Amino acid sequence: EELERRFQRTVDAEQRIEPRDWMPEAYRRTLVRQIAQHAHSEIIGMQPEGNWITRAPSLRRKAILLAKVQDEAGHGLYLYAATETLGADREDLTRRLVDGRQKYSSIFNYPTPTFADVGVIGWLVDGAAICNQVPLCRTSYGPYARAMIRICKEESFHQRQGYELLMTMMRGSAEQRAMVQDAVDRWWWPSLMMFGPPDDASTNTEQSMRWRIKRHTNDELRQKFVDMTVPQAEKLGVTLPDPQLRWNAERGHHDFGQPDWDEFWRVVKGDGPCNAQRVAHRRRAHEDGAWVREAAAAYARKRAGDAGGTGRAARTEGAA
Amino acid sequence: EELERRFQRTVDAEQRIEPRDWMPEAYRRTLVRQIAQHAHSEIIGMQPEGNWITRAPSLRRKAILLAKVQDEAGHGLYLYAATETLGADREDLTRRLVDGRQKYSSIFNYPTPTFADVGVIGWLVDGAAICNQVPLCRTSYGPYARAMIRICKEESFHQRQGYELLMTMMRGSAEQRAMVQDAVDRWWWPSLMMFGPPDDASTNTEQSMRWRIKRHTNDELRQKFVDMTVPQAEKLGVTLPDPQLRWNAERGHHDFGQPDWDEFWRVVKGDGPCNAQRVAHRRRAHEDGAWVREAAAAYARKRAGDAGGTGRAARTEGAA
Amino acid sequence: RAELAAYCVMLGDDALVFAQRLSEWCSNAPELEEDVALANIALDLLGQARMLLTRAGEVDPTVRPAAAPEHVPDEDALAYFRDERAFRNVRMVEQEPGDFAETVARLLVFGCWRLALFERLAGSRDPVLSAIAAKGVKELAYHRDHAAQWALRLGDGTEFSRERMRAGLDRVWPFVAELFTPHPVETRLAEAGVAVDPAELRSTVDDVLDRVLVAAGLPRPETPALPAAAGLAGRHGVHTEPMGYLLAEMQHIARSHPAAVW
Amino acid sequence: RAELAAYCVMLGDDALVFAQRLSEWCSNAPELEEDVALANIALDLLGQARMLLTRAGEVDPTVRPAAAPEHVPDEDALAYFRDERAFRNVRMVEQEPGDFAETVARLLVFGCWRLALFERLAGSRDPVLSAIAAKGVKELAYHRDHAAQWALRLGDGTEFSRERMRAGLDRVWPFVAELFTPHPVETRLAEAGVAVDPAELRSTVDDVLDRVLVAAGLPRPETPALPAAAGLAGRHGVHTEPMGYLLAEMQHIARSHPAAVW
C-alpha cells in the first residue's frame, strides 16, 4: 500500500521509475507487453521495406533503405533490452511472437507492391509512429523513455528520408507520380488505424494514463497526425483519399472520415493480407538460425571454462 | 563362335540386331555405355538452355524454348528405354550419372550467360549433334537406330529454330548483333570438340566401326560439320573465331584450326566451368524427387494388390 | 470493349503467371516423365495466355502499356512492359512453387476452377472468347486429371507423401476464396453473357475437389482465406510479395533491350 | 585511362555484387545482432562500390553504358544499365548466399583478400584509388575479424556447426584461385604502380586463412578450383549462372522506368 502510494507519487511528479525501484506487478506486466509489442513491430517492420532492398532503383536509395531497415533491427534490440530490465527474456518474447501469441503493429500486415511504398511508409507510417512515440519519451519507466528518445530521433530522420523520396518521385515521370498517389491511396487508412480504435472503443487507456505510460488518447493522436500530414500532402501534390477531409476553422482542426474499423479488427485478429506471411518469415529466420545460436553458446561455454553457462552469455558473445 | 559369326554377318549385311537376338557381351556393354551417355547428355543438356526459360524475352521464344527443353527430356526417355532393352536399369544409370561415374557430353559444361547462347546452342551444338547422330539412324542395334531417327528429326527442327533466332537477332539492334557474335566466339571451339579427340588420339573407334555402332571417324564428322557451318555463318553475318579457317579448293573442304585439346581433356575429366554445377543440379532434383517416386511405387503396389511389386511398375504408373 | 479487354487480361494473366511458375520445374521434377508433363501443362497455359492477351490488344488497343516499344506485339507488350500493379491474375498462381505436393495441390485447384470456368465460357457471346475456351477445355481436363492422379498417389502413397500432400493443400487453400470472388468487370460482363461469374463455379469446383480428396483419403483443408488488402486483391492488381520477384525475372531481358527484336 | 576505369569497375563490381548478396540476409539472419552486422558490412561495400564506379565514370566517360539515360549518375548507369557480360566481378561474390556458415566462409575469404589488396592499394599512385583504399582498409579489417570470429564459433561450437562450417568452406574454395589470377589490365596497371597484382597477395591471404582455420580446428578445404570457361572468368565478364538472376532482381525496377528519377 505504502509502496504503491510512493510509486504513484513518483509517477505523478513526472519522475522516472528505474529497474531497481518497486513497481506494481500490473504496471510491470503492462509495460513488458507494450514494449515487447513495440519491439516485435520494429522486427516485423523490417519485412515490408526489406522487400525492396535488393530491387531499389538507385544505389543511393539502396544504401538509405538498407540503413533504415538496419536501424529497425537496432530499435528492436534496444526495446528487447528494455524488457529485460523488467525481467523478461528475449527468447521467450520471440517465441510468443513466432507462435502468434503476441501482437505487433497491424500496419505491417499490408504488402509493398511498388517502390513508392517505401517512401509512403517513411512518410505516413513513420510519421504516425512518431506521433505515437514522442510522448513516450516522457513515459514513466526510465529505460523505456530513454530508448524512445533515441528511437524517435532516428524515426524522424527516416520520415524525412521517406518524404524526400516522394518529393523526388513527384518531380519525376508521370508514371512515378501515379505510383506515389497509388501508394498514398493504399496506406492512408491503415496509417490512421495505427493510433488504435476510437477512444470509446478502447480499453486500458485510463490505467495507462494514470501510470504515465500513455499521455494522450488514440483520437487526440490521430487528430494531431491528420493536422500535421494534410499540409505535407499538399506540398507533395498528392490527394489524401478521404472525401470528408476538410479544415474546420471552428475546431482549429481538420475533420476527417473514419477508417474501416471492421477491417482493423480483422487484421488485428490475424486476418490481414500479410499476417501469416510476416510471422512465418520471422519463424523461419528464427528456426533456421537456431543451430548458429547454439554453436555460439557452446563456444562461449567452452571459452568460459563453464560448462553450466546459459545461452544468455553466448548471445552477448554472439553479438559481435 | 558360330553365334558370333552369325552376329557379324547380320551386322555386315546392314541388318538390325534386335533385343531378343544373341549379341557379344562387349557389344552389349559398349552400347549400354554409349546410349546411356547419350541419354545423360540429353538430360544434362536441359540445364544450360533451361537457364533461360523463365527469362526468355518474348512469349513466342519462351514457348519454343520450353518445348525444346521438354523434347530433350523426351529424348532422354527414349534412350533410357533403349538401354532397358539391353538389360540396363534406369535408376542404376541415373545413380552413375549423379555419382559422376558416367559421363555426358562435355559441351554442357559451359555456361549460358546471354539469350544469344540459346540460339547458338541450337545452331552449333544441335548442328554438331546431328552430324554425329544422323549416321546412328543406321546403327546396327534396332531400338537405338529407331530412337535416333525420331531424335534426329526433332533435333533438325531445333537447329532450324536456333538459326532462325540468330537471324532475327542479327536483324535487330547493334547490341543484339554483338551478343550473337560473342556467343559464337564462346561456343565455336567447344562445338568442334563435340566430335571427340582427333582420330590418332581416339580409342575404341575401330571395334565400334566393325560393329556398325559408329560409321565415321571423329575427324570426318568434324570436317563435315565445318563445311556445313561456314556458309551458314556467312549468311548469318558472324565471324567464326578461327584465323586458320579457309576454303581449300584442292581438298574440296575447309581447312581449320584445332581446338585446345588440353581444355577438352580437362573438361572431360570433370574440370570444366560447370561440371560440378550440372551434376549437383541433377543430383538434387533426383534426390528431392525420391519421396515422390516412392509414393507412386507404394500407391501402385496397393492398387495391384501386390505387396511384393517393385519400383519398376510404379515408375510406369508414375509416368502419367 | 474496354471491359472485354480487361477480362481477357485477367484470364490471360492467370495463365501466363501460372505457366511461368510451372516452367520453373523444368529439369527439377521428381522424374523425367514429370518434367515432360509439367512442361506440357505450362505450354498449354502459355498458349492460352498468348491468345487472350492478343485478343485484349485487338479489342482495345489502349490496354497496351505506354512503356512498350511500338514494334513489340501486343502479347509481349502486355507480358513484358506492364508493372506489377497492372497485372490482374489471382494471387494463387503467383506463389512460389513449393515442393511437388504443393504444386500438385495448386494445379488441382486451379485446373478444376479454370476447367469449370472455360466450360461455361465456351458459351460466351464473344466468338473469340468462346473459341479460346472451347480449345482450352480439353487441355484443362488433362491438367486436372493429371493433378488428381498425383493427389491420389501422394495421398494414398506413403505416410510421408500423405503428410506432404496435406501440407501442400493447406498452403494452397488460403488462395481458393479469391477464385470465386467476382470483380465488377466480371459481374457486368457475365450479365451481358460474355463472361462467367466466378461465384457460380463454387459448387461445381467444390464437388470435384471433394471427390478427389475423399478418394485420396485427404481431409478438406481448413486454413483460412487470405484476405484482400483493403478490398484489393489480384484482380485489382494488388499482389503478394513473390509477384514482384517473378516479374523481375520474367521481364528483365525484354526490359533491358527495348529496341531489340527477338 | 581506359584501363584505370576498367580497374575501378572490377573492384567496384566485386563490392557491389557482394553487397547485393549480403543484403539478402537482412531480416533473415540467425539473430538480430547479425542482421545489424551483415547490413553494416553490406553498407560498407556498397559505399566502396559507389566511390569506385563514380571514379570509373570520371576517369573515362566512355565506360557509361549506352543504354543508360543521360540523367542517371555514373554509379547507377554502371550498376543498373550494364548487361551481365559487362560486369567484371570475380565469380565468388555472385554465388547464392547458402546457409550462414557458407556466408561466413565467403566473407572470411573475401575479407582477407580484399583487405590485403586495399592495404597495398593505399600506396597507389592514383590519389583517388589510394584514398578509397585507405578508407576501405578499416572497414575490411572489421569484416575479416567479424567473419573470423564466427568461423571460430562455428568451427569450435557444436558438432553440427563444425560440419556446416566445413561444408561452407568447401563450397567457397573453388572460387579462391580466381582471386589471385591477374587480368592483363591488373598486371599492366600494377607495373605502373597504380593497381595491385593479385597474384602477389596469395601468401599473405593464405597465412591469415591458415591461422583462422587452425584456431577453429578446421581442415583446409581441398575442393578443386573452378576453371575459367575457355580462359574467360569473372574479370572477363563470363560469370556463373546465378549472376543473371541477381542482375534481374537488382536492375528490374531501374530498367523498367528509364525516364524516372529516384
Q: Strand-and-helix sequence of chain A, N→C?
A: HHHHHHHHHHEEHHHH
Helix content of chain C: 55-70%
Q: What is the rounded Rg of chain A?
A: 21 Å
Oligomer classification? heterotetramer
Q: What best-fitting shape of chain C do the alpha-carbon axes yield? A: globular
Q: In one word, what is the shape of chain A?
A: globular
Q: Report the mean per-residue pLDDT of chain A as an integer.
A: 91
Helix % of chain A is 55-70%
Using CB atoms under 8 Å apart, which protein chain pair has the greatest interface? B-C, 54 and 56 residues
Strand content of chain A: under 5%
Query: Which structural category fits the helices and strands of chain C?
Result: mainly alpha
Largest sheet features of chain A: 2 strands, antiparallel
Beta-strand content of chain C: under 5%
Strand order of the largest sheet of chain A: 1-2
Task: Note the topology.
The complex is a heterotetramer, with two copies of chain A (320 residues) and two copies of chain C (262 residues).
Chain A lengths: L1 H11 L12 H20 L1 H5 L8 H26 L5 H9 L17 H18 L8 H29 L3 H20 L11 H6 L7 H19 L9 E3 L4 E3 L5 H8 L6 H14 L1 H15 L6 H8 L2
Antiparallel strand pairs in A: 1-2
Helix pairs in contact in A: 2-4, 4-7, 6-7, 6-8, 6-10, 13-14
Chain C lengths: L1 H22 L8 H28 L14 H7 L19 H22 L5 H29 L3 H14 L3 H4 L4 H8 L10 H15 L25 H15 L6
